[in-house]
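User: Predict the structure for this protein chain, please.
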Amino acid sequence: MNIYVKAMRLPFLTGSLVPVILAAAFSWLHGSLDLGRLVLVLIGVGSLHVAANMINDYYDDPGSDQINLHPTPFSGGSRVIQEQLMDAKTVWAMAMGFFVLGTATGVWLVLTGRPFVAVIGLMGFLAGYLYSASPISLMSRGLGEVTIFLAFGPLITWGTYYVMTELLTLEAFLLGIPLGLLITAVIWINQFPDLEADRDAGKRNWVVRLGRDRSRFIYALLMLGPYAVVLFWVLTQPGSWPYLAAVLTIPIALKAIKILYAHYQTYDEIIPAQALTIQTHLVLGLVLSGALVFQKVIS
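Assistant: Here is the predicted structure, written as structure tokens:
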């Protein structure tokens, strides 16, 4: 794998870009979609996500990543520093460059008639930076999970919809809840193989606090919660029946839960569950986006 692709963790950008696509479909349903602005949002959100990934590697290098004996393809960081493929200063510099790029796209949107992007973008920047950066290090204080939920769920759909429509609506904020829960599930399951390293490095995330046994139950709730939310939408919003297509993705979520429950005390054997968690997020996001497009076409 290309060193820079590995360092930026590009395959994981679906976590931030799929909510953008979902919100864009929601905007189109309501009669407003600007492709130029959408590209800017994708660049801005993607840049902040890459920056957050790299700043996480930088701050975890002297801590949990150095002592992690069980990294997986989905957890334990990119490993570019530990494998001496890139030094820490380069990782820091690249992170700052992507923060600048993300900020620049936000400034452009502000100057072209979307002033509230300044507020939403600042929240995204702070979430990405303070999640890892000391001395705040939200991930070490039991605040990382809620930060991820908001930053990669409701905040993205709310902000994208605003850029497309100039409207700040509760609907657009709530739209991000299912994907917010699933991206939190991604972070949550990734903390299982990292538990000992996180604990010894002083990262008091919730899997460390609860232990693997109790954390399984929370993981299952995070994986199944999105379907309860979608069902609520179908029952309360007229014409939202296309959302029922979400049930097609339930088998993926259930398979991930089954694997974790069987192998939660292991390391390599939960890797398939980690992959399925990411797949659930990706596929559900695309299915819901497709449902919105279908709703627009038949309306």
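The chain has a mean pLDDT of 96.
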